User: What shape does this take?
Amino acid sequence: MTYRDALREALREEMLRDETVFLLGEDVGRYWKGAFKVTKGLAEEFGDERVRDTPISESAIIGVATGAAITGMRPVAEIMFGDLSALAMDQIANQAAKLRYMFGGQTKVPLVIRMPFGAGVNIAAHHSQSLEAWFLHVPGLKIAMPSTPYDAKGLLKTAIRDDNPVMFFEHKLLYSIKGPVPEEEYTVPLGVADVKREGEDVTIFATLYMVHKSLAAAEMLSKQGISAEVVDPRTLVPLDKQAIVDSVKKTGRIVIVTEDCKTGGVSAEIAAVVAEEAIDYLDAPVKRVAEPDTPIPFSPPLEKFVIPDENRIIGAVKEIVR
Amino acid sequence: MTLEKGKMIEVYRKMLEIRRFEEKVYDLYGENLVPGTIHLYAGQEAVAAGVCANLRSDDYITSTHRGHGHCIAKGAQLKRVMAEILGKKTGYCSGKGGSMHIADFSIGMLGATAVVGAGLPIAAGAGLSIRLRKTDQVVACFFGEGASNQGTFHEGINMAAIWKLPVLFVCENNLYAMGTRQSIVMAIENVADRATAYGIPGVVVDGNDVMAVYEAAREAVERARSGKGPTLMECKTYRHKGHSRFDPAAYRPKEEVEEWLKREPITRFRARLLEMKTLTEEEADKIEQEVVVAIEEAVRFALESPYPAPEEALEHVYI
Assistant: This one.
């Protein structure tokens, strides 16, 4: 099953299971079916009230979803491209994330905000960013980043049932990838990492599409006698620190691979976790492979240059594995 | 005259409660008992009281940084509002919110937001929730004329309009956004004129005449409850104090202040109630005394309440 279909199954199953679940966003309805076709068929099945096309008003999409969430509904809001979350930042970071806390626990905000991140399709600086670090810095938000169809479906179902606002980050290049998804009901818990490949010599920590590039790099490295373990946290909040520490304990080395900008990025936070909790197990410096602090450029050779790839991952591994 | 006698007296009592409450908060601040800052509602009582008199306890409101009056008008307990303002454990938000972020979900008070204009989409969302849950509740969303220049004003009202959501958008136009006079930042005189852009009714009301506010809100609530959609109500009013506690409001011409004080809502309503023989002087004085006692009790409760334990700062981030 594709990642896209897995997401759709999760939405459909949760809408069948709980009538307070509804979808809203730009072009999610019957006419366009979602910019990446994730919501195809859902308006036909559940009606336009529960699969709601909105005006181009990102701030109000999240504000309306938040208002619905604090009054008994479980909205799943879609922001068409992650970059556009900037337009909704007050509603996400100051409202949805903080209402429960500011009001002393009187309310809950069961809200999922889906959006695609990532470069690779040459749509440049306003449609290609990976902005997870912005949200990692906001207490009150949870963050899920599934890399496979299995994780996409299982995490989305859990996110919808969670009583906190969950940022649900997808990747444009993942929608068409295929992977096994069980016929029967299942969920994936938030806060439990998945070792996508076991190895002995080095830990590669990677998220979203970088998991796949890391797996490809690990395969190439194995042919050169280096055994790499690929750890996918699946959620950044909560973060399965133990899985990272356990893996570093085993390998003594870590390369952190993320598509977001290097400075102040997710890789910095993971490096800090390793420094605080696993430094005694390290046999080599922590290495980071990330976007080199530029906006995402348009022209194919430029874009290819800034986005981490297998060669950069292998290069980083080889710097610390001898 | 649609307000029956008992209801009019109740509205009068609410207005007085808000005024005396705010005067007390002002004094407590001067005694260094209120942490942070405060934005007093004194002068605007007719708006909150007149609108909320039309609401049921299961109806919702959203509020602003200048929100004490909205809480009290919707039926919040004075003592718990006061305790929150003083940062006490017994406050509505256990001391996590303070003056600018009070909520009481048990009476449909969905909270004050201190980000100007942020409440409009949230109110529209509560309206959408009502629609999807198929109840006949309504939402009243309070905000100032300053907020009407935010993008959220446009986005929130537009969504409520296209989906005919049961929301009253109540603009309290007190002429100043902090120190910036409306004429400096808007080319129109009436915020309500903007309703035309969304295809909904826009009504200008004397916000210092509680009966006028009540009537306009009654129509808007009826319209909302019957599924006809939102209304933009603009209540022209005036804050008696500065923007916040230490603002002497020197930017307001003396003549303007004097002119508005002549139209002060509580004195006006009291005179009207006496004139209509809804109240006698003695009865009005008695209400006044009862309110003073109630505020004193609230203050005592708040002062005697403990502060939260420091570690409670770590609670309620997630559920």
Q: What stands out?
A: The domain at 3-174 of chain A is CATH 3.40.50.970 (Rossmann fold).
